[in-house]
Amino acid sequence: MATELKVLNLNSCSSLSRTPDLSAFKSLEILILENCSSLEEIHHSIGDIKTLVSLNVRNCYRLEELPAGVGRMEELRELLLNNTATREIPISRGCLMKLKTLSASHCEELAQLSKFIGSLVSLTQLDLSHSAIEKLPDSIDSLKKLETFNASYCKSLAHIPSSISLLTSLSILDLRECNKLAQLPISIGSLTSLTALHLARTSIAELPESIVYLQNLRILDISETGITELPHAISMLAKLQELRVSGCKNMEALPSSISELISLNMLELDNPPLPHLSQLTLLNKLTLSDCRWLECIPELPVGLSMLCITNCGKLKALTNLSYLKHLSELILEKCFELTEVTGLEGLQSLSNLQVDECPKICRLGGSKSSQTSDISECTSAGQSLHLSSLECLRELHVTNCTNLNEIRGLEGLESLKFLDISRCTSLRQSLDLSNLKNNLQKFYAANCEKLVEIQGLDGSESLIELNISGCTSLTKSPGDLKNLRTFGASVLYELPDPEGSESPGDLKIFGRTNSGRLPDLQSLNNLRRVFAANRNNTVDIPILDGSETLDFWNVTGRPCWRAISS
């Protein structure tokens, strides 16, 4: 029987400390020892299995070495060593010639590779990420079929041999977070098949001029490096689609030729002065972060679909965005001087609008096509928010706007499904949501301490989640909510009055109830869980029909209720 077995799966055999003699498994092709957390030894007889194609010892944390016979296997195509304690990968000269995948990520004891790694002439994927590798052997140039080389997060890797330039099939080179790596081989441009070069957070301060000869390069990431400039001939990278240069504090300017990158569709940058971007006709994603000098935005490419502007402390206004007909996502974060955004009414494709920590903003020009809006941490004193033109909005998030005292135009948002105005502590008005009740599914108004009344939700069949916890000025619940599933409140003056069998599945109570006792819950036929953040040890609750299926928990996971007779 054993002689005919092709697959042996011992995954997660946590008590297995060593494998038995495997010499009887003459036809074995796949051996899986993954997650055998106690495994310390693989019997040397594994080397006698001439048919083995795949060996998987991932997450065998105690396994420090592989039998030498593994390095002499002739049919092995996949060797997975991730998260083991192995210090060496056995490779014999002229062996493992059919191996295609070698994965040794998170091998924190693995400091070097065998000088015979060049024998792996069929290797297409090599993953050494998060290992202790200090250098790569020159024989790596023999890996002519290698397509993906991942050495990211190799904190001890300080040198890349020039022989790597002979890997003519290499498509992806990932060296992110190699903190000690200070330079690339000057012949890097010989990697004619390279499509992605990841150098973020390395110590590289200069790109070789030959990089412009990477004719198939599509992704170049040099984020948070000490690189001072891009090659002036960067426009030769005709297939470059993504360029990430954010966090390059020493870069004073981008070359004007960047506007000639005809395939560029995503650009991430911060400190350098903006080049002329309008000529980048294919650019659809633009991220500007930490541009503390940026006071105005130049003309943008008309094909832009995503614009993200974060931590631009001097930016005061975004005006006339209406020409960006394809813009679907606009994100503004930590723009502390930004006061207005206009032209949104012309953005026919806008589906996601987020404004977070923009303390001086007081008006957003609306967009009739906008589906999602998130306006957070907007603390400008005594301001009101105008939303009348956002008539197709699906989600509206106006949170942490601590000085916002009024929201106008809610009556026109008839397509709204999710409304979150949590922690708008100065909001004093009486909200009329009559026009929203046919579509509104979730309404959060947590900690709106001065909110005095919520009107228009009585009889809503669409509302399933309601959170009015911390609304200490409210004197009553919003009314009869037939399909409510989750209800959160600090003080229960009265419960929503469900009809029939539709009642909350979760009842969430934050703070203290009026009397230390919940009101009658007999009508809540669907109620299954009650959550509370009540500081008292116990709160009285009437016994319900079917109460054997009802769970009572506080937010720390401890029971905090006692049942009493109704």
From TrEMBL:
Keywords: Leucine-rich repeat, Repeat. The keyword Repeat applies. SMART domains: LRR_TYP. Residues 15-127, 170-289 form the Disease resistance R13L4/SHOC-2-like LRR domain. Signal peptide: none annotated. InterPro entries: Leu-rich_rpt_typical-subtyp, LRR_dom_sf, LRR_R13L4/SHOC2-like. PANTHER family: LEUCINE-RICH REPEAT-CONTAINING PROTEIN 57, OS09G0267800 PROTEIN. This is Disease resistance R13L4/SHOC-2-like LRR domain-containing protein. It comes from Eucalyptus grandis.
